[in-house]
Amino acid sequence: MTRITKLQGLIALGLMICVALPLMADEMRGTIKSLSSAKKELVLTDSTHKDVTMQYDEKTKVFIHGKERKLQDLRKGDEAVFVFEKKNTVLHAKEIRCIHIK
Question: What is the domain range of residue 76?
């Protein structure tokens, strides 16, 4: 009986962590101004017309019209929602969801 209770507690803890991790990321909406595959970064213009530089890597997920795509499918002028984490002063894109394609 005690094992079942401990197991249930571990499962509950695992579920809470899975739910909480995405909430730790921030979101920003903007338009892609430039992409650099050499630097693995993109520059976007946010809603206040401020340019923001964001890093990405092979783990960054890209969705266009709800379908998973590749980073190479992104284009200058695409509008997107960027899910990112801030590490020190660097913004790192975890997910890019295009909402309007140029």
Answer: 26-100
Say which CATH number the domain at 32 has.
2.40.50.320
Q: Is there a domain that residue 92 lies in?
A: yes
Rounded Cα–Cα distance for residues 82 and 93 (Å): 6
Find, among 92, 94, 84, 79, the residue nearest to 29 by Cα: 79
Give the whole-angstrom CA distance, residue 6 versus residue 70: 41
Residue 47 lies in a domain: yes
Distance from C-alpha of 7 to C-alpha of 3, rounded to nearest angstrom: 6
pLDDT tens, position by position, 57-93: 999 999 998 999 999 999 999 999 999 999 899 999 9
pTM of the model: 0.73
